[in-house]
Specification:
The complex is a heterodimer of chains A (about 450) and B (about 400).
Chain A: H1 5-10, H2 26-34, H3 38-42, H4 55-68, H5 74-105, H6 109-121, H7 135-143, H8 151-159, H9 162-167, H10 179-184, H11 191-200, H12 210-220, E1 223-226, E2 230-233, E3 243-245, E4 248-250, H13 256-267, H14 270-284, H15 291-303, H16 308-316, H17 332-342, H18 347-351, H19 355-368, H20 392-404, H21 416-424, H22 430-438, H23 442-451, H24 453-456
Antiparallel strand pairs in A: 1-2, 3-4
Helix pairs in contact in A: 2-16, 4-5, 5-17, 7-8, 8-13, 11-12, 14-15, 15-16, 19-20, 20-23, 21-22, 21-23, 22-23
Chain B: H1 3-8, H2 12-18, E1 36-43, H3 48-51, E2 52-54, H4 60-63, E3 73-74, E4 79-81, H5 89-93, E5 97-104, H6 113-122, H7 134-141, E6 150-153, E7 168-170, H8 180-190, H9 194-223, H10 240-251, E8 257-263, H11 271-293, E9 300-306, E10 326-331, E11 340-341, E12 362-363, H12 364-376, H13 380-387
Parallel strand pairs in B: 1-8, 1-9, 5-11, 5-12, 6-7, 6-8
Antiparallel strand pairs in B: 2-4, 3-4, 5-10, 9-10
Helix pairs in contact in B: 7-13, 10-11, 12-13
Classes of the chains: A mainly alpha (about 450), B alpha/beta (about 400).
Chain lengths: ~450, ~400
C-alpha cells in the first residue's frame, strides 16, 4: 500500500496544519491512538456525574419554581432557574469549544475523528432544554474512552448511560407483566431495543424480526434512569420469564447481568462485525467502499472479538483506504475544525470565545451549513453522502463562513500563495493556485482555498 | 414594475451581473401543477381551543375561567377567533381563511413535543425518526419534480421535507455577498467539480434573485413617490416576515411547495399574552405570504399544522398543558374559508380524551391528504399508502372549493 501523509491527516485526521506535522506512517497513527488521550487532558470535558448544573439541580429548581408560583418566593425561584440555565449554556459552549480546540491542535487527529464517528453511531439528542449541555458529557463518558477499546464495552457504556436511557425512552419502559407494570397498567417502550438491533448492533439487514425487537425490549426492562436515583436496575419493573433474542436464550434472573450478557453476545456477532465494518469504511473512505476493505475489517472485528484498535488498524493497513480518489466531503463541523487548524488557530483563542462570537462564527454558521449543533433529525445521525451537504444553501454557508470568519481567529492571516500548500498539500490543483494568488486580499485568498473542492474533499 | 422589464431596463445591477456566467439562471422545469401548497409547522403545540373558541359549548367557560376573556372575535355560529388572529378577519370574510377543529395526528399519550413533531412531519402512525418527511414522499411519488419544486425555508430543519426526493432548502439569512473578483475566482476553483459547481450556481442564482427582488422594491419605491405608505417595509433578517417573503418570491416562480416553522406555542403559563404574540406573528406571516403571492394567492393553500393540542382545562398558572386534539388554521384562495370545519366532540368530561384533552374527531393527515388530492389531483391510494401510511382518508372535511 502507498502511505500518504496528506491523506493520513485529512481522510483520517482533522486536517493539515502549518505547525503540526502529519503522521509519518500507520504505526505512528496507531501508537498515538493506543497511547494517552493528550487532547482530553489538555481540554477536559467533565462527565455526566461531575457536570454542573446537574439534571437533578435543574429539575429541582424547576419544581421549586412551580411550587413557588404566586407566593412571595416566586421571584427568587425564577432567579435560580435563570441562573442555572445560563450556567448550563456556558458549560455547553465551553464543552463544544473544547471539542473544536481538540481537533484544531491535536497530534492525534484519528482519535477525534473516531470519537465523532462513534458519537454519531450512538447518537443521542437532547429531548428538552435541560439536557442540551449533557450531550458532550455523554460522549466523554461512554464513547471517547472506548474508541480504541472493545466495541462491547462501548455498547455497555452507552446502554447504561443516562442520556441514552432518556433519549431512547428506556426510562419509560416497564415489563407489562412485572409487578410495577401490572400495578400501573403500563408496558413496553421498544425504542431502545429496536434501535440497538437496527442501528447500533446487527444493523437493519442483520436478520432479526419484530419478535426479536420485542424480546430485546423485554430483556431491557428493569434498566432505567431518573435524576433522583441515577441509573438503576429495578427488578420490580422487569418482565418475568426468559427472553430469546436472535436465537439465544437469556435466563429469567431479573438483574443487570442478563442485559450485559445479551449485549456482549450481540456485540460480537458476525452481522454486527459486518455492519460496523461497512459503516466505518463508508464514513472514512467512500460511500461505496471497496468490498475487500470491508471484508478485512469485518474479519478482524470477528477474530478479535470487537477490538476497535485492531479494526481501525485493519482499515489503515488496507490499500483501498489510501486510494487517491477523494470521495468524501468534510461535514460542516469538521470543515470548521480543519479550516481553523489550517490557518494555525491557537486553542486559547478558541476557548476565549464569548457567547456572541461563538454564535456568530460557530453555532449559526453550522446551522446554515445544514448541521445544527448536536441536532440530527433522528437516532440514525448525520448523513454520509456528500450530496446531502453540498446543497446550494449548505455550500453558500461554507462560502460565507470561509470568506468572513477565519480572520477573527488569528491576528495575521496566512499568505494565500503558501496557504494553498499548507491547507491542501501537494494535490493543490493549478486553478486553485492561480485563484489564491489572484485574490484581492489575504482573507479572500484563504476563503477561496477553504471553499475549494480540493480542501473540502478528503 | 415586473422582473423582465427591470432586467431589460439596464439598471446598473443588471449590467454588472451579466458579466458572470455564474449568473446564467439555472434551467428549471416547472412543477407538474399550478397550485401551491404551503405547510407551516407550529412547533410547541398550539392551543386549538383558544385559537377558535366554542362559546356555544356549555362546558367551555368553566374549563377556561381566565382564557375565556370575552375578547375573542365573534365569527360564525357562536364561535370566536383568538384576538391575535384579528388581522386575518378580512381573509375570513373573503372566504380565504378558516379553522378545522378537533383534529390531531395519530400520535397519542406520550404528549412529547419531540415525538409529536416526529409523527407530524413523518406522517406516520408512530414516531419514526428514520421515515423521512411526508412532503418528501409526496414529491418523490410524482413525476416531473425538480429540486426547485419544493422548498424548506429558514434555519430550522424541516423534517417534513427531508428524504431522498429532490428539494431545496434556503434561509433568507444566508448572505452570499462577495466581490466580483471572488465570484470570478470561485467560478474557476469550483468549475471542474460538478457537485460543487452546480450547488454554487444554484446558490448564486437564488441569492441574486433575492437581491433582484430587493432592488426592484427599491426601484418601485422611487417610482411610487406619491404613495410611500404602500411600500412593504423591508423585513428584519431572520424574521418570520423575511421567511414568508422569501417563500412567496419562490412560489411566484417555479416552486409549488414550501414549508417553514413558526414557533412559540408552548403556553404552559400566562397563556393570554404569549399566545396573542404568537397568533399575531402567525397572522402577519400569512398576510406577508398573501401580499407576496399576489394573484398566485388564489391558487394557494396554507396549512398550519401543530404536533398536538393542549389540555381542555386551564392549569393552575393561567396556561394549558400538553394535550391531544387541536385545530388546524388554514388560509389561501384555493380553499373554502370563512368556516369552522370539523366534527365538534363537545367538552363535557365524558367527551374528553382521557378526561383531559379535546377528543380528536379527525386525522389532520386526512385533511392534508384531501387538499393534495384537490389541488394536485393525487390518487387516494397514493395518499393513504405512500404519503400517509395507514391513513383512512374518510370523507372530505369541506375544505375544498
Amino acid at each position: 500500500m502507498i502511505f500518504d501523509p496528506t491523506i493520513a491527516a485529512t481522510r483520517f485526521g482533522t486536517g493539515l496544519s502549518p505547525v503540526i506535522e502529519p503522521p509519518w506512517d500507520v504505526a505512528a497513527m496507531i501508537s498515538r491512538l493506543y497511547g494517552p488521550d493528550d487532547a482530553a487532558l489538555r481540554h477536559p470535558i467533565l462527565g455526566f456525574d461531575a457536570i454542573t448544573p446537574s439534571l437533578l439541580q435543574i429539575q429541582t429548581a424547576n419544581r421549586d419554581r412551580r411550587q413557588a408560583k404566586g407566593t412571595p418566593l416566586d421571584e427568587a425561584a425564577i432567579e435560580v432557574v435563570r441562573q442555572l440555565s445560563k450556567d448550563a449554556a456556558d458549560v455547553r459552549r465551553h464543552n463544544i469549544l473544547s471539542t473544536v480546540a481538540r481537533g484544531v491542535v491535536t497530534q492525534d487527529g484519528l482519535r477525534e475523528r473516531l470519537t465523532s464517528f462513534w458519537a454519531d453511531h450512538f447518537t443521542v439528542i437532547a429531548r428538552n432544554l435541560a439536557l442540551l449541555h449533557l450531550v458532550q458529557p455523554y460522549i466523554e463518558d461512554a464513547i471517547r474512552p472506548h474508541v480504541a477499546g472493545r466495541f462491547g464495552d462501548m455498547v455497555k457504556a452507552v446502554v447504561t448511560h443516562p442520556m441514552m436511557l432518556l433519549y431512547l425512552e428506556q426510562n419509560r419502559s416497564i415489563g407489562p407483566n412485572s409487578p410495577q407494570g401490572l400495578r400501573l397498567d403500563r408496558g413496553l417502550n421498544e425504542n431502545l431495543g429496536r434501535e440497538l438491533l437496527e442501528l447500533h448492533l446487527v444493523g437493519v439487514s442483520g436478520g432479526y424480526d419484530q419478535a426479536d425487537v420485542t424480546q430485546m425490549a423485554e430483556l431491557l426492562t428493569g434498566l432505567t434512569y431518573s435524576a433522583n436515583e441515577g441509573v438503576t436496575y429495578k427488578p420490580r419493573w422487569s418482565e418475568p420469564g426468559a427472553e430469546v433474542v436472535m436465537g439465544r436464550r437469556y435466563g429469567d434472573a431479573a438483574d443487570l447481568t442478563t442485559v450485559t450478557s445479551a449485549l456482549d453476545d450481540l456485540s460480537v456477532r458476525p452481522e454486527t462485525a459486518a455492519h460496523i465494518a461497512f459503516k466505518m469504511a463508508v464514513h472514512f473512505v467512500s460511500d461505496a467502499p471497496d468490498t475487500d476493505l470491508v471484508a478485512s475489517m469485518s474479519r478482524t472485528f470477528t477474530d478479535t472479538g470487537g477490538d476497535l484498535l485492531a479494526v481501525t488498524a485493519a482499515m489503515l493497513d488496507h490499500p483501498a483506504a489510501w486510494t487517491p480518489d477523494r470521495m468524501k466531503v468534510r461535514r460542516p463541523d469538521l470543515f470548521i475544525t480543519a479550516s481553523l487548524r489550517a490557518i494555525g488557530t491557537r486553542a486559547d483563542r478558541i476557548m476565549a470565545m464569548g457567547p456572541r462570537d461563538y454564535n456568530r462564527h460557530i453555532a449559526a454558521p453550522l446551522n446554515l451549513m445544514g448541521q445544527p449543533l448536536e441536532s440530527p433529525i433522528g437516532p440514525d445521525g448525520w448523513a454520509e453522502e456528500a450530496a446531502a451537504w453540498i446543497t446550494p444553501q449548505g455550500l453558500a454557508g461554507r462560502i460565507s463562513w470561509a470568506l468572513r470568519s477565519p480572520q477573527t481567529f488569528v491576528d495575521t492571516m496566512p499568505d494565500p500563495r503558501t496557504f494553498v500548500w499548507t491547507a491542501v498539500g501537494p494535490v493543490a490543483p493549478p486553478e486553485l493556485i492561480v485563484a489564491a494568488s489572484a485574490a484581492e486580499s489575504d482573507a479572500d485568498g484563504v476563503g477561496l482555498t477553504l471553499t475549494s473542492p480540493a480542501f473540502q474533499r478528503i | 414594475m415586473d422582473r423582465r422589464k427591470f432586467l431589460l431596463g439596464g439598471a446598473t445591477l443588471g449590467c454588472s451581473l451579466a458579466a458572470s456566467p455564474f449568473l446564467t439562471p439555472v434551467a428549471l422545469a416547472s412543477g407538474p401543477w399550478d397550485n401551491r401548497l404551503v405547510v407551516i409547522v407550529l412547533r410547541g403545540a398550539m392551543d386549538g381551543l383558544d385559537a377558535a373558541r366554542p362559546l356555544f359549548d356549555r362546558d367551555y367557560a368553566s374549563l377556561r375561567p381566565n382564557l375565556n376573556d370575552g375578547k375573542g372575535i365573534p365569527v360564525a355560529n357562536d364561535w370566536a377567533l383568538h384576538p391575535g388572529l384579528k388581522p386575518l378577519i378580512p381573509l375570513w370574510k373573503a372566504g380565504e381563511m378558516g379553522v378545522l377543529h378537533a383534529v390531531s395526528t395519530p400520535y397519542r399519550d406520550g404528549r412529547s413535543h419531540f415525538d409529536g413533531q416526529e409523527v407530524l412531519e413523518a406522517g406516520t402512525l408512530r414516531p419514526d425518526g428514520t421515515a423521512g418527511g411526508w412532503l418528501n414522499r409526496m414529491i418523490g411519488a410524482v413525476p416531473g419534480m425538480t429540486a426547485e419544486t419544493a422548498y424548506a425555508v429558514g434555519q430550522e430543519r424541516m423534517a417534513i421535507l427531508s428524504g431522498p426526493a429532490p428539494h431545496l432548502r434556503w434561509s433568507p439569512d444566508v448572505q452570499l455577498e462577495m466581490s466580483p473578483q471572488v465570484r470570478r475566482l470561485l467560478e474557476m476553483t469550483l468549475h471542474d467539480d460538478a457537485m460543487f459547481r452546480d450547488a454554487a450556481l444554484q446558490a448564486v442564482s437564488i441569492a441574486n434573485s433575492l437581491s433582484l427582488d430587493a432592488a426592484m422594491q427599491a426601484a418601485a419605491a422611487e417610482d411610487a413617490e406619491e404613495a410611500p405608505s404602500m411600500m412593504m417595509a423591508a423585513p428584519k433578517p431572520g424574521s418570520y416576515a423575511a421567511i414568508a417573503q422569501f417563500a412567496a418570491s419562490r412560489l411566484r416562480e417555479d416552486t409549488r411547495i414550501a414549508s417553514f416553522s413558526v414557533n412559540g406555542w408552548d403556553t404552559h403559563d400566562n397563556q393570554t399574552p404569549h399566545l396573542t404574540q404568537s397568533m399575531t406573528r402567525l397572522s402577519e406571516t400569512i398576510l406577508t405570504l398573501r401580499d407576496g403571492l399576489g394573484p398566485v394567492w388564489d391558487k394557494t393553500a396554507v396549512l398550519c399544522l401543530t404536533e398536538f393540542g393542549r389540555t381542555a382545562r386551564e392549569n393552575g398558572t393561567k396556561g394549558t398543558d400538553h394535550g391531544t386534539g387541536g385545530a388546524m388554521i388554514y388560509a389561501g384562495g384555493a380553499l373554502r374559508g370563512g368556516q369552522i370545519a370539523g366534527k365538534w366532540p363537545g367538552l363535557a368530561e365524558a367527551d374528553l380524551y382521557e378526561r383531559r384533552d379535546l377528543m380528536p374527531t379527525g386525522d389532520v393527515r386526512a385533511a392534508a391528504g384531501w387538499i393534495m388530492r384537490g389541488l394536485f389531483g393525487l390518487e387516494a391510494s397514493l395518499i393513504a399508502q405512500t404519503i400517509f401510511p395507514g391513513l383512512d382518508l374518510g370523507t372530505e372535511p369541506g375544505l375544498l372549493l
